[in-house]
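Hi, here's the filled form for the chain we discussed.

Project: internal
Contact: R.S.
Residues: 464
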Amino acid sequence: MGNSYKFILFGLTIIFISLIFYGFPDSPAPWFDEGINLGIVKSWLKHGVYSLEIGPSEFIKERSLLITTNYPLLLWIALSFKFFGIGLWQAKIVMFGFLFIFACLFYLLAKKYYGANSALMTLALLITFLPLYGNGKSALGEIPGLTYFLGGLLFWESEKKWRIFTAGLLFGLAAATKPLYLLLIVSVAIGELWIFAGDRKSNYKRWVLLASGFAPPLILWLYTLLPGQLSFDYLIKTWQLYSNPYNIENTAFVNFLRFFKESTPVHFGLLFGAFLFSKIFVKHYSLKKFEVILLAFIVLNLLFYLKTAGWYRYFFPAHILLFMLFPQALAGIMEKFGVLNWIKTRGSIILIAILAVVQAIVLVVNIQTSLYLDRTPRQFAEAVNKIVPQGQGILVIDFPEIVFLLNRDDVWHYLRANPHITFGRDLFAANQYPAYVISDVLPPGNKYDIKIDGGKYVLYERKK
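And the returned structure, exactly as it came back:
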């Protein structure tokens, strides 16, 4: 490894760390899903209840309908809150740790399977990808789940028993992080079947070790979600939520067209297309063992995305994994189809450098927008904490991030998790009008005046 390589690697590391800490702790601002996750941890530490508080000493009982990001992330945030206090920055530093470990594992895997140069190009593409910071710096499960997954891949191909068990354990933790990552179980099974098909001999001891590692995290995951009294109807509701969160139909074709019309899906399509093209026309279907698992998950994630509401976050895990596969695929294409010698030897490096620069430009242009940097939620919550006397009572409608940031115990929360699932009491329907309401619409009954107008967040005070 020459000095120029070390210099570039060092420079990329400094850029990555700088982007991680950019706008701390308001980049990105906490939002709906993150607010739920942080609220669960806050409730867990303050009251010993692993759920979301929706009123003084009132908690959501249907946890499987609420908790989508689970203990493999929330436990680390709880430890941070325990040592440093409950707050936004305390959660962000946990995510920064996951991001840094994720990038290191990404680099190490690429270097292990494709060499140092491909690893460097992979890292350059990764750290200039704007959604990495939108999804990765928020207290969400996407990056933590992938971190456990990549850690498992580092151990997976070993013949040593403790390494195989550790791989299974890390895969289990990845699957327990988010319901989406239950697809990893299928992906690993496909990888094992691929090995079996190639070797023509089964290895039951290996499978038992993997399953033994998988089992404890998944058993604990089930324990955190299932109620004391389990019913068949409850299981059906949970399955419906996991398989189709927004209970929508006929989205597959619309979402498929996005990969030809919208920039982020098109970007995904180009990366994925290059990998498939290289395997079909260059390497002639030659797949590394770990590539089988990655490819299986990418396809499964893509199929899952097609039936969702169409938000890019739903195929983000597959998208980010393609950065590991793309540089080597492009190098193979350039080597086979490059006409001039300099295209054969340097074409992939030049194209990846251009792509990284384009991604960096998109990042610089957009990272200061409100989607990636917004101090409003934290400042609004601080203003409410100062203005509203303790004990007056505040009803918060659909803003779990604000509930988390409010430092008080007199809060009721009415939460519409999606158009078909709500939590909390509708106080207005019961003709109850709390002293203060935080909402983005005027409460009914003409009983409130605006106290603080925070744009998206508005504090209403009941008329005297």
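Let me know if anything looks off before we file it.
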